[in-house]
Amino acid sequence: MESAYTWEYETVINELVQGMEKAKQLHFHLCSTSPSRAQNMLMQRILSSYEKALLILNSKGAAEHPPAAPTPASGVVESSISVDGSCRSEDLSNSFKDQQDYNASKKRKMQPTWTEQVKVNPENGLEGPTDDGYSWRKYGQKDILGARYPRSYYRCTYRLVQNCWATKQVQRSDDDPTVFEITYKGAHTCNQSTNAVVPPPASPEKQETRHIPQQQSQALLNLKANLRVNTGSSDSKETIPSQFSFPSTYELCDTENQYISFSALVGDGNLGAHSPLFLSPATSETNYFSPQPHHMASFGGSQGYQHFESDVADIVSAHASTTNSPMGSMDFQVDPLELDPNFPFNASGFFR
DNA sequence: CTAATTTGACCTTC
DNA sequence: GAAGGTCAAATTAG
């Protein structure tokens, strides 16, 4: 039993490594042929998705190894990750749904949690919801002991319709009011993410009802919300700025230019509508964000990408060194013991 | 009219 | 018992 799981586990990792290698080769080809920014972004998202999948698998595998007595849902690796990196979210959401029915609250506690720090742009003075591509509904607000600002609680708008149990908490930083700490809990099992990913030029008002075919939007799904963390426009008291400068890692082919461009776009207040960057969903990129956006200023050229490459090797061979790993900079908790066996453990479904 | 937000009450955890 | 998290009725917005 255990050996079988070990074999499957290793096979999945091998497939992921191979896929990532091919993606890297493709990326280098793109770099040599002056790719568009959107292509670069897409490429980076693909690579980071692979990396994260490997990282998770490694940390999970190292921590608990193949489960001795797998539950019907414990075949997460097989069911969540396909060789081509696509996410079978339907399967995932189904199994997810089955389990959550019997104990939703308990399940929520088992969901992975990660935190992003979003710095708003103090210059434009605009405040409002940020947009991470998902539709959130505010369901509560609490004054937190010792915190100057209240904490807002959001859940996925499609919780009931699509049984999506993703939630997030938005807490304004005491130290720097322009910084918002956004804690995500659970991954989206709904399809709405694709809406923001491909900004409808004509009818943005239909975003929430649009449903893009799963397969077609899969790659985009991977590129999701991390570049833009949206607090929803609902925060009346704390008024979250709708525009913010986002520390990111656009260091793929010509990092600096891209980062500059991104900042400028952020400033003009038309993120999704005009920027090619947002044609592709910001994916797990968020996970690369440093809590200290200022560090990004010194983020140069291809440094980031080299960093990525070496990290991947380390991850695969030496198990998640959080020191070097891109994920080391974020407060992302992946506790193998707390992870839901049914959690969509694919690169696209987990880190959006 | 429908959907989202607000906010006090209730529940859970420590 | 206190604090954080969630619920749900009332209110507001589109």
Automatic annotation (TrEMBL):
Keywords: DNA-binding, Nucleus, Transcription, Transcription regulation. Transmembrane segments: none annotated. PROSITE patterns: WRKY. GO terms for biological process: leaf senescence; response to hydrogen peroxide; response to ozone; response to salicylic acid. Coiled coil: none annotated. Residues 88-130 are annotated as: Disordered. It is found in: Nucleus. Residues 92-103 have a biased composition (Polar residues). GO terms for molecular function: DNA binding. Gene3D superfamilies: WRKY domain (2.20.25.80). SUPFAM superfamilies: WRKY DNA-binding domain. Residues 125-193 form the WRKY domain. GO terms for cellular component: nucleus. This is WRKY transcription. It comes from Salvia divinorum (Maria pastora).
